[in-house]
Amino acid sequence: MAKTGRGSLRQLATLPHAPEQNKNQTSRNQLPRLMDFPEIIWPSALNTIKNWITVQFIIRPYFDSEFQIKDFVYGAKQALQVVSSKLVGGDLSQLQDLVTPEAIAELKPVVQKLSMTQRKQLEIHESDIYLSFPYQIGIMFDDANDKLQKRWVEITMVFHVMRGLTEMRERGEEIPWNMGTMPEYQDRVFICNYRFKKEFTAGHQSDWTINVANHFRAIDLINESK
């Protein structure tokens, strides 16, 4: 499966930079990269077309006739909420059924070094997600065994989250469509990249597991690029 590309910082260039007096505080609260994976922010038009073709002409006819991307996205949001809550607690052993051992091994030393303030930033509530989409859907095959072809589906999801969005809605506040570009919301807008993998080998199907989990703020990418 081709490695996904880094989200273009040029698309974020219109975001106002953090005031100079807030830079030190921003630096202390900035999340380090949880995993070595390129940050993805926006959909790719080409990938969107490829994803539709993959679902309609490969996954549904040959792997899972009942597969629906909207159902997958719904489940992915729930998985994001569960995993993020465990990351906040720091006990990654509770993620063994949801996250691959390789991903846990990479996440553990990073999460353990986070301050409490940084850990709290990892917590995501499903109702605070205001945009989500599959960035890339890939199919992988292993023909090493002549008698049995192993096959997997891998889906990279992108979630845009604003912490406190639920409370804003409950108070009846108007939600600005461009809140991600507004200075007063920048510290509360997070982007999560999660990659899900499932085996579809005949007679050996597995559950969906997560092999990539990244959380970051768009404003932090801008500050890094300066």
From TrEMBL:
Region named Disordered: 1-29
GO biological process: protein insertion into mitochondrial inner membrane from matrix
MF GO annotations: ribosome binding
First and last residue of the signal peptide: none
GO cellular component, one term: mitochondrial inner membrane
PANTHER family assigned: M-AAA PROTEASE-INTERACTING PROTEIN 1, MITOCHONDRIAL (PTHR13333)
Protein name: Tim44-like domain-containing protein
Organism: Drosophila navojoa
Taxonomic placement: Eukaryota, Metazoa, Ecdysozoa, Arthropoda, Hexapoda
